[in-house]
Write a structure and sequence with these properties.
about 110 residues; about 10% strand; 3-stranded antiparallel sheet; mainly alpha; Arc Repressor Mutant, subunit A; 6 helices
Length: about 110
Protein backbone atom coordinates (compact mmCIF):
# COMPACT_ATOMS: atom_id res chain seq x y z
CA UNK A 1 0.00 0.00 0.00
CA UNK A 2 1.37 3.39 -1.03
CA UNK A 3 1.52 6.24 1.45
CA UNK A 4 -0.73 9.23 0.77
CA UNK A 5 1.67 11.59 2.53
CA UNK A 6 3.13 14.39 0.49
CA UNK A 7 6.84 14.78 0.87
CA UNK A 8 8.74 18.01 0.43
CA UNK A 9 10.17 16.59 -2.80
CA UNK A 10 6.63 16.17 -4.21
CA UNK A 11 5.64 19.76 -3.49
CA UNK A 12 6.40 22.54 -5.94
CA UNK A 13 4.94 25.97 -6.39
CA UNK A 14 3.45 27.14 -9.64
CA UNK A 15 6.17 28.99 -11.59
CA UNK A 16 3.76 31.89 -12.20
CA UNK A 17 3.12 32.17 -8.46
CA UNK A 18 6.86 32.08 -7.78
CA UNK A 19 7.51 34.78 -10.39
CA UNK A 20 4.81 37.04 -8.92
CA UNK A 21 6.25 36.76 -5.41
CA UNK A 22 9.76 37.25 -6.75
CA UNK A 23 8.61 40.65 -8.06
CA UNK A 24 6.35 41.67 -5.16
CA UNK A 25 8.74 40.35 -2.54
CA UNK A 26 11.66 42.43 -3.70
CA UNK A 27 12.30 45.19 -1.19
CA UNK A 28 10.60 48.51 -2.08
CA UNK A 29 8.56 47.15 -5.01
CA UNK A 30 5.37 46.86 -2.98
CA UNK A 31 5.73 50.40 -1.65
CA UNK A 32 6.44 51.80 -5.12
CA UNK A 33 3.38 50.04 -6.51
CA UNK A 34 1.29 51.23 -3.56
CA UNK A 35 2.24 54.88 -4.18
CA UNK A 36 1.40 54.59 -7.89
CA UNK A 37 -1.89 52.84 -7.12
CA UNK A 38 -2.95 55.51 -4.63
CA UNK A 39 -1.41 58.66 -6.07
CA UNK A 40 -1.39 57.98 -9.83
CA UNK A 41 1.49 58.95 -12.11
CA UNK A 42 4.50 60.30 -10.24
CA UNK A 43 7.70 62.10 -11.05
CA UNK A 44 10.85 60.46 -9.72
CA UNK A 45 11.36 63.07 -7.01
CA UNK A 46 7.81 62.50 -5.72
CA UNK A 47 8.31 58.74 -5.64
CA UNK A 48 11.64 59.23 -3.87
CA UNK A 49 9.91 61.43 -1.30
CA UNK A 50 7.11 58.87 -0.76
CA UNK A 51 9.47 55.90 -0.49
CA UNK A 52 11.94 57.95 1.48
CA UNK A 53 14.05 55.19 3.02
CA UNK A 54 14.94 53.84 -0.41
CA UNK A 55 18.09 55.32 -1.96
CA UNK A 56 17.78 57.00 -5.35
CA UNK A 57 20.07 54.38 -6.88
CA UNK A 58 17.91 51.52 -5.65
CA UNK A 59 14.71 53.32 -6.64
CA UNK A 60 16.01 53.70 -10.20
CA UNK A 61 16.90 49.99 -10.22
CA UNK A 62 13.47 48.96 -8.92
CA UNK A 63 11.62 51.19 -11.39
CA UNK A 64 13.62 49.72 -14.29
CA UNK A 65 12.80 46.21 -13.06
CA UNK A 66 9.09 47.00 -12.65
CA UNK A 67 9.13 48.51 -16.14
CA UNK A 68 10.82 45.39 -17.53
CA UNK A 69 8.13 43.26 -15.88
CA UNK A 70 5.40 45.33 -17.53
CA UNK A 71 3.97 46.75 -14.30
CA UNK A 72 5.21 50.34 -14.63
CA UNK A 73 5.83 52.53 -17.61
CA UNK A 74 8.12 55.51 -17.89
CA UNK A 75 6.27 58.29 -19.68
CA UNK A 76 8.14 61.15 -21.32
CA UNK A 77 6.59 64.27 -22.76
CA UNK A 78 7.61 65.71 -26.10
CA UNK A 79 9.50 69.02 -25.84
CA UNK A 80 9.73 68.67 -22.06
CA UNK A 81 12.12 67.23 -19.52
CA UNK A 82 9.12 65.90 -17.58
CA UNK A 83 9.27 62.18 -16.91
CA UNK A 84 6.56 60.36 -15.00
CA UNK A 85 6.13 56.79 -13.87
CA UNK A 86 2.70 55.22 -14.03
CA UNK A 87 1.16 51.81 -13.73
CA UNK A 88 0.34 49.77 -16.78
CA UNK A 89 -2.86 47.78 -17.04
CA UNK A 90 -0.94 44.84 -15.55
CA UNK A 91 0.20 47.01 -12.65
CA UNK A 92 -3.34 48.27 -12.05
CA UNK A 93 -4.49 44.65 -11.87
CA UNK A 94 -2.56 44.40 -8.58
CA UNK A 95 -5.04 46.75 -6.85
CA UNK A 96 -7.15 43.96 -5.27
CA UNK A 97 -3.98 42.15 -4.17
CA UNK A 98 -2.70 45.27 -2.44
CA UNK A 99 -6.11 45.88 -0.84
CA UNK A 100 -6.03 42.34 0.55
CA UNK A 101 -2.53 42.94 1.94
CA UNK A 102 -3.89 46.08 3.66
CA UNK A 103 -6.75 44.07 5.18
CA UNK A 104 -4.30 41.46 6.44
CA UNK A 105 -2.01 44.13 7.91
CA UNK A 106 -4.93 45.93 9.58
CA UNK A 107 -6.06 42.69 11.17
CA UNK A 108 -2.74 41.18 12.20
CA UNK A 109 -0.24 44.01 12.73
Amino acid sequence: MQSMETTQEDFSLCPKFEKTFEILGQKWNGLILEVLLNEGPQRFKNLAHSVNKCSDRVLVERLKNLEKEGLVERKTYKDSALIEYQLTERGEALRPVMETVHEFADCWY
